[in-house]
Amino acid sequence: MFTPGLLRSRLSLRQGRKPRNIPRRLPRRPTTHANRPRRAVKPFFGHPARRKVAGQLPSNAARYNPAVVLPVLQDVACRPPGFDSGPRSIEAVQVLRISITDRCNFRCLYCMPPEGVPWVPHEQILTFEEIRQVVRAAVQVLGIRRFKLTGGEPTVRRGVVDLVAMLRDIDGIVDLSLTTNASLLEQLAVPLKQAGLDRITVSLDSLRPERFRRITRSGDLARVLRGLDKAAEAGFRNTKINCVVMRHTNDDEVVDFARLTLDRDITVRFIEYMPLGDAAILHASRAVAGDETGPAGGCGAQDRGAEAFIGEDEFRPRIEAALGPLLPVPRQAEAGVGPATVYRLARGHPRGRIGFISAMSAPFCGTCNRLRLTATGLLRSCLFDGGEVDLRPILRDGSAWPARAIADAMARCVRLKPDVHSRHGNQQMSRVGG
């Protein structure tokens, strides 16, 4: 349930870069929305009868692999990322994903075993001030201006609202978002919005209460939907829903999820199942060699997890058969600079959009525009198997302002990005941040 409203395009502020040694200064955004007029919102599901249920590439991206179809880019002016040829370059990085905790109140099938995983000791987790130092360096030295807070589940970390306010106070940030399972959003949506959070992305893998509980092993769908309602009431726009599609688990719901976009101004993004950590062996039917690749040069997850994996080329036609063809959405019409290819339904006047993140069947490594910071301070160049750089020694060596050292570490890390990810991830997803 999201407030009806016209699709708003976000102004792109990344059409040019100042020299790296000149900090960007943008006007501070207000940190309260108390005086903002509110529109009436309708519930996520109609009452008493349920309503019909129901990406995007970086603006500087170019086609990397001719085997990968990227229709969203056909009519968009773009330049190649800095590492498309020659050395990797920090110039290509537009987003820093920051995991603020490895803890989560769900135990999703593709993320954790039923008993959970050992939590990282508190003293190894980055403090809010250390996170703030990393963000300041990224903004003021490198010109990175988009940040996403992840987990684990970021809302279970005490003081997350304070962290948002701390980061919002840094001049130059143009997009501060958070990925959540929405289980605590009913209580936190308003404070997070008032603290300055721009957007939320909600992980939601089923619209059926019992199935949702089975997938999450503990989740309450009604509570999640109330959280989405509260987020809409708080004024959040450009909300995204991420659905990990798994064969014989929830792949029969893709049409229901797509229907959400008919009367909701949201983006539903279908994500191919990825073998990370325990999920890599969750449905393993046979051993797979480390150098085995998929049809477009990917990691072969469709073979490793044969029972769970289902590719876009199989579930997308189901959506089009039921709801009609999909039309590419111009890049500028979608908030953020994520990896999804984004469409809308051609029939009628749908309010929302449909995205596909197909990292397994159609890798987009050549246009990757992000780095990841784990909760323990490791900069990771790739979600799967790239190199990493530890920031904790820099952050904890007593320097009052380690910005240059942090920036240099980021530049080193981006050079460790693989051409194409070729193995399943060796890190627990809850610690990397997805």
SSE layout and pairing:
Elements: E1 95-99, H1 128-140, E2 146-150, H2 160-168, E3 175-180, H3 185-195, E4 199-203, H4 209-216, H5 221-234, E5 240-245, H6 254-259, E6 267-272, H7 279-282, H8 301-304, H9 312-323, E7 326-328, E8 341-345, E9 353-357, E10 370-373, E11 378-380, E12 388-390, H10 392-395, H11 403-414, H12 429-432
Helix pairs in contact: 1-11, 2-3, 3-5
What does this structure look like?
This protein has 12 helices and 12 strands. Helix 1 crosses helix 11 (403-414), helix 2 (160-168) packs parallel to helix 3 (185-195) and helix 3 runs parallel beside helix 5 (221-234). Helix 1 links the parallel strand 1 and strand 2. Helices cover 23% and strands 13% of the residues. Strands 7-8-9-6-5-4-3-2-1-10-11-12 form a 12-stranded mixed β-sheet. The relative contact order is 0.18. It has one domain: Alpha-Beta Barrel (TIM Barrel). The protein has helices spanning 128-140, 160-168, 185-195, 209-216, 221-234, 254-259, 279-282, 301-304, 312-323, 392-395, 403-414, 429-432; strands at 95-99, 146-150, 175-180, 199-203, 240-245, 267-272, 326-328, 341-345, 353-357, 370-373, 378-380, 388-390. The two termini are 25 Å apart. It is an alpha/beta fold.
